[in-house]
Amino acid sequence: MRIRRNTYQKVCHQIASTIKKLVNDSEFSVLGLATGSTPIGIYEQLRKMDVDFKKTLTYNLDEYVGLDKSHPQSYKYFMNEHLFKHKEFHSNNFPDEKLCPYYDSMIDNSDGIDIQILGIGTNGHIAFNEPGTPRDSVTRIVDLTENTIKDNSRFFNSIDEVPTQARTMGIETIMKSKEIYLVAQGKHKKEILEKAMYGDITPEIPASFLQEHQNLKVYYSD
Ligand code: PGA
User: What residues contact residue 109 under an 8 Å CB cut-off, 6+ apart?
Assistant: First the structure.
């Protein structure tokens, strides 16, 4: 497994260009999208690119339980601000209360995710698949760990406002993606990224399951 090292700007440009090529070259395309600090630069690049998403369907990885789409920290709000209000898509899906039970079959019926963007948590989570998540997990409601609540509290006024549950794609859902781009940005992610990519494959580090994916590209920037 090779970890590609480059500046954050270059990593984002490379991934955005790959997405642009997929979308422009395909009759219909399906993207798996992530929120958080990591993918912001990718969306910034995509906003500037000449790319028509009208025949592109998106599935976001996760969404908090209990935050309405008008809440600035909801992932629907985030995606709207960073991408969806700037570019018109065929449709944008989230594992919210309504779609969560059908999410995996919806993705299968769309012929799977062509490109999935992923970040990694400092505890090794991918999406909200926290340590201990089994390989065969699918989209479902989960409790967030204290570590994740603490990490994400930087976006809220206080830690008490951070939701304690979320709905998330499972490991199995993510592993079915045809191509995965895992991005870790910042020195605080270096150690967990290396453990996940070079250490044992274990539910204790959910990102380690990605070692078994046939079409995974991994990027690190300081
Ligand atoms: P971040 O989160 O991009 O905000 O660092 C990544 C994650 O927790 O999956």
Answer: none
Which residues are the active-site residues?
62, 123, 125, 130
The amino acid at 95:
P
Both tokens of residue 54? 């009208």
- How many Å apart are CA 35 and CA 3, to the nearest integer? 21
**Binding site membership of 120 for ligand 1 (Cβ less than 6 Å):** yes
Half-sphere exposure of 116 (CA within 13 A, CB side): 28
Q: Round the average pLDDT of the chain to a whole number and report it.
A: 97
Residue 119 Cβ contacting ligand 1 at under 6 Å: yes
| 95: pLDDT strictly greater than 90 | yes
Residue 120 Cα to ligand 1 midpoint, Å, equals 6
Q: What are phi and psi of 221, to 5 degrees?
A: -135, 145
Tokens 């809220």 correspond to what residue? 156
Under 8 Å between Cβ of 219 and 4: yes
Average pLDDT over residues 80-91: 98
Q: Could you give the strand order of the β-sheet that contains 165-168, starting from the edge strand earlier in sequence?
A: 62-64, 165-168, 140-143
Distance CA 151, CA 186 (A): 14
- Average pLDDT in the 46-69 region? 97
Name the DSSP class of 199. Answer: S
> CB neighbours of 105 closer than 8 A, spacing ≥ 6?
none
Instruction: Verify whether ligand 1 is closer than 6 Å to residue 37 (CB atom).
Output: yes
* Residues 172, 213 contacting (CB under 8 angstroms): no
**What is the model's pLDDT at position 1?**
81
Handedness of CA 35, 171, 11, 26 (dihedral sign): negative
